[in-house]
Amino acid sequence: MKTRNLALAIAVLTVVAVSIMAFSVAGSGINPKPVNVQSAENQPLSPITDFSLNSNFQNTSSGYALVPDNSVYSPSAMISVFISFKPQGDLQGYVRDLYTPSSPYYHQFLTASQIGNRFGLNQNTYNEFVQYFESYGLSVSQSQTRLDLYLTGSVAQFSAAFHTKIQAFRYQYTSNGLWNPLFGNESALPGSISYSQPFFAATGDLMLPSSLEPYISGISGLNGLFAQPDIALPYGMSPSIAYAIANGNNGADGGTTYLASLDNIQNLTYANYTWATAQSVGPVLGFPYDLGNYQFIFPSTMHMLTGAENLWNGQYALRESPDLGQGITVAVIEVGFPIPSDMAQFSQQVFGNANQLPDRLTYIGVGIPSLSEGINDGLVYGWTLETSLDIEYIAAMAPMAHIDVVAVPNPEFSSFDNAYQFIAQYLVNNDPISAIPSGNVIFGPTSGATNITITSNSYGAPEWEAVFEGSPMYVTVEDQLLAQLNAVGVTNFFASGDEGSNGMAASPTMPSQSPYATSVGGGQTTAESNGVEFPVTSTIVNYSFFGLTIPMYVAQATGLASFTYWSYGAGLEGTFKGEVGGGFGESVMEQQPWYEAGVDVYETGALIDPIVSGPAAFNMSVYAFGTWNLFYGGTSFATPITAAEWALIEEQAAMLPSANPRMGNINGLLFEAHNAYNANVPGIVDPFVDMMNIGEGFNYGPMNDYSWYLFNLSISEPSDPVLPGWYATLFNPAGSGWNFLQGLGFINAAAMSKDVIGTVSEEGYALINPAFSVMMVTPSGLSAFTTLTSGQTYTFRIVTSTGAIAGDNYLIDAFSGGSMEQIMPNATGYFNYTPSYTALSFIGNATEYGYFLVSVMNSPVAMPAWAFQQFGVSQPMASGNLVLTVTNPEGVAETGTVEIPMFTTGLTGFYNTYGIGPAEVMLNGQPVASAVVSEISVNVSQFFLIDPTMPVSSYAPGVTVGHFLTDARGNFVFWIDALLAETNGTLLTQVVQLRATYNGLVSNTVTVYIEPQAGDFIPSVNYVPGQYVSDVVDFADMKYVNYVNVSIGSMPGQYVNVSYPPMFFDARANATVSGILNGYVPFNFTVLPPPGQTIMLNMTASGINDLSFSFSFFGFTFIIYDIQHPIVWHYAILISNPGPDPTSSIAASQNGIVSGDLNIAYSSSWLGSGLTGKLQVYGSSGNLIYTFTGSSGNAMINTENLNDGYYYAVYTVQTPTGLSRSSGYGFFVYNDAYNLEKNITDVQKAVSSYSSSGVQASSVSVQLSTISSLMNQYNSSLANLNSLQAQATALYEGGVINASLYNLVQTQISSYKAALQTYHGDIVSLEEQLNSAHANKETGLFGGYSHSLIGLFSGIIAAVIAAIVSIAVIVPRKKDRKQ
Length: 1379
Known about the structure:
It is built from 23 helices and 74 strands. It folds into seven domains: 213 residues, no CATH class; 513 residues, CATH 3.40.50.200; 100 residues, Sandwich (Immunoglobulin-like); 125 residues, no CATH class; 120 residues, Immunoglobulin-like; 87 residues, Immunoglobulin-like, CATH 2.60.40.2550; 136 residues. Helices cover 22% and strands 30% of the residues. The two termini are 67 Å apart. Strand 48 and strand 49 form a beta hairpin. Its cofactor is Ca(2+). Keywords: Calcium, Hydrolase, Membrane, Metal-binding, Protease, Serine protease, Transmembrane, Transmembrane helix, Zymogen. One of its GO terms (molecular function) is tripeptidyl-peptidase activity.
């Protein structure tokens, strides 16, 4: 068994890739609510990590190892740490609006302080962080964005501030023959061992006060993760070889001039290049002679190859004014400074003036206190060549642009992250140079230094490695930092890398694949001189490389002969050994932006990389260390060349009426330029040079064309876990449009400027200077738009740049779904359009390409004004059943719960770095491409073993740790933190949930248990709150399990231990084993923790993993032994434990129809403490009348204070663990019920009195009228009571009131009816007596009854009738108040 090795946590993310690059800050999850962070130092500490480093780790398979170096450790050594915070708003959404032409925020770039006000931490919270770290003596550099902090201090101070332990390490590199700048010249020798510069890394947990930790997005600088420049040399070649030595003196021989040095041919005026025969170059590089001649390109050549010459001379410039990049500032972000004398010598050779470049070159050290230290940093980390070439190619391409060398002291990502925020804060708004804090050296001219609009960055790593061998959380942090620069108007160019597709069908480089970066790929440029690529001239320079002389012909470049594929190989054949070529691929995480579309662009729903490309083959050169260095290549050249081209274009933008050169994120604009040319927009020329399908010059060969490219893809299939979406429909990705190796192509600076800016200042003749635009009509007014839905009809309006409404003198060419439609607006500029969508042969989730081309009709000018507006078209809303499945190792596709191993069962000793499967998403039984699969953490708590700087909140339970896209087969991969398995110790099962979304549909959720070893080990759990946890733990295919333990936390007696008896001796394992592979362990735990305390169900098994295998070869049998002993499986599942439900009861002194004093008693009970209760009484309309609190009590209510009608009371109790229970009581208030009964009694007494005293003389007619009125009132009361009865029946049948209340009310109504019936009899009897008296007594109908008694009767009956009527108008209860 491998020893548990926690050193992997620091090393593995960087050592697997040749680039040793990974990202050290990350974050995800929701923004925390503001908390009180006062006195942070006195608060409990919250762990950000829990990591211990084993410094003996080695990873020989990748050539890298991590070794401790105690000799350089010092508590006083100075280090730096970068902390990023979670944005408090939708920063990325704002950046999207910045580049939507019709948006009101279009190009409304923010300052750093405005970013802080919109998206940063509030000032008080930010100050608490500052105060906390300053209290430990650290120097804190603040940012106006309030989204980050940069800390510097000693190792001892950081150890105290983060409550951790910090040690010193180096990386060790065993060379595979490829030179690595970070390890020196000797790293090019195959098999040699070299070491990086020392660095400091945390080897213990990082701790911060609990109130501060939730705000942190990431911490970098304590894990030693490095970036590497994307500069390369051929196999086996180092800078000491590429360092050329002149051979011979100036002179002439037979009409041929021999020059002593390449220094003599560099003047910008001549644009020289050199070339040599294959017979001369072949021995130096070790490749066959028949591969063609070999050109060498110099910085002074590039203006003739890029079209910049036509801007320099004003031919394609505004008002024909020469454009040399004046007024534009470009920043190159580097490690350390170049050597100033090299810059002066380069300037003398290229410009004929040693001061031309130094006079516009500012050295700015971010965390570098002096010029000498900055120069030394570049030398120590092997970055001087990279810095020199970046400056030289920008300087030669844009001879009047200002250049800032923004240098950091080391290649750790904390340093680069700090540089980004440093630029955003101090270097973009022409702020005074004096605002830059002390300790950051500034050398050289300062005019223009604080007006950066472009950055050039040449580093990266495969997205695949960063995501699956590290964490998908890394992607989000780089996106956030680059989005900040976009928000202040900075365009970010990033090299796409030098490893091709990294041996896979699709593996782009990050951060070049960020939507907020413009990725630059690589190809080979071949110059021509008056139409001839390799002219035999009369000027030769002889150069020697280790005793081999290369005679070079000197030729003057007059243009670009070809742009072809850069050398590409897989270490087998091709021009050069090793995997080389411009980086490309299709992202597994980033969705395709709406603008990545066109008639010849792959629209599969996944971000495609690169965007553009440029010169990167091994025919480039750089001046450093006092001489010219040849045979260099890499996208490190293509990136500054492209940045310089854009500087020329920005200078043109500054000449427009808006006078604003800032463009920020230009990706959408680049696609728009390409598409406008394809749409035949008047005056638009092709702004890109396309790659050719076969190599030229030294790159010619059968393995370097499209066939080799496709072969590389085919050898990965079907083993490749993800294929790009185009693979299902297009075999050959070649074409004049976008493809994986060229992107959109090599920018022609003059043509691009003409398309984007134009050659006249007037509006209507360029992409960013339109005279009018199309706005969508919405209920809230006119609105910008980027995406339309197929089949939906929209109303649009043409609006001029001044905001005026256009008329009908326009023609709209509307394109979508592959078809064109011409539309004419009405007199006020309105028109309708219904976009269409052409579905792919497979089901995709991509937006398709659409556009409006609006032009003026009947214009008096020769070329009417126009506006080209690109948009995306999404397919109609999907319908049906979206199903996500993950296939287990037994081949069963699971849709609910699945268990997979980190360990690869089919290959001994190999580990999966992504979720095996296949895992796929299907819609109605068909695979879908570019469905978005969210991976949600359930328990990945041991990620701290991989990255100690990642805040726990970034992968806490419930946090979405990443998004992944399905390919054309519907397949996807997901992160399983598999590098944990390399340590082999007692590891937790990692648990995640997967859920897919596709075009409005949401799939089922699959819970994935990721075991660190082979075999299934999963529980079934039956939990009855407050009583027991029971069921079984099943295991299968676990090799020779000897012992299983099941337990709940540390509860006494809560264990089930099972031992399997030894059955035989395993000689290979040298141990006695049980032979048991499958089994189950039942458990039933009845002693549970108190309510509110989470139940931790632990399962541990130990045994032997025998993964040996045998094979036969020519009759001989071979056995490969792989015995792991002992091997441990461990799994902990968290079970929520709120406890049993509480009880709630309510009772009243009266029920049904009530009156007078009403007493409502309420009570509750629960197993634990902390129970709270609330009794609330509501009126018939739902209004709250009374509130009483407590777990028990009595509520006294006098109904005389209430109106007659229906009321209900609800008593709710809640436990501190979140459980609740309610009980209710409904009643009718009728305050006259008692009076009714009393009045009936009075009537009976009156009748009795009449019988004994006789009738008094009175007016018979009046008395009979009164009797008639009483009878009418009785009939009305009876009708109202019947209506009340009918309403109660309806409420009962409708489920509003329950049977008990209904029956009680019915009984009470019957009682009232009986009373009324008795009263009716009394009235009839009274009438009979009056009639008898009228007949027998002269005194009148009422005989001896007095008028006063008659009045009394009348009053009583009237009151009775009124009371009964009130019953009939009772307001019914609401239906959701059932009793």
